[in-house]
TrEMBL record:
This is C-type cytochrome. Keywords: Heme, Iron, Metal-binding. SUPFAM superfamilies: Cytochrome c. Residues 85-184 form the Cytochrome c domain. It comes from Acidovorax facilis. The keyword Transferase does not apply. PROSITE patterns: CYTC.
Amino acid sequence: MREDLCSQLLPAGRATLRRGVAVAMVVGLLSAGRASEVQAPSAAAPAPAAPPLVIGLGQPLSPADIDRYAITVFPNGRNLPPGRGSVEQGARLYAMHCAACHGAQGIEGPAARLVGTDGFIGWSDPLRPLRVRKYPLQVLSVGAMWPYATTVFDYVRRGMPMHAPKSLTDDEVYGITAHLLHLNGLVAGDALMDKEKLPQVVMPGRDRTVSAWPQER
């Protein structure tokens, strides 16, 4: 009886096994085809887009906008604006805008001393030790320390007067710069400063710098 049962089941089992193997082969072929499609895109598929050159941060500025902020004046005079100002004109402007912080003669303070030599004692200024003791910033003088006259112009135009920086016209800045140079004995009382003459003024502090900026433009 066992032989009869085995003879009946064996053909059915073999048929089932053959069907299972055939199904597995078909599934395997289909899976391999799908994997190859994912791994190797067809030649007709579009290439990935290149990243944008501008990432979208900030706002582009026009040359006119940049010119409003590109106001740095270099030691050799490059970037000085048109205009002119006299010592006499600068004296009036200095009394209006500068004397309250720097003193009538540029030495009284309380802000930085603009005139004279550096140090605690000045033979031409017997009261200097008292002012330096009260305002230590007074130990250094713009007239003695700063190496280039063009830097005086740049700083005055950029940051002065303290309560209203950038409120002075270029002519007014030239005038105040001329007055400060005159107070330091570097230009005559009738001097007129402009973009050509200002870079020619030799400041006492130039020899104290590590290297001199070339004068040619």
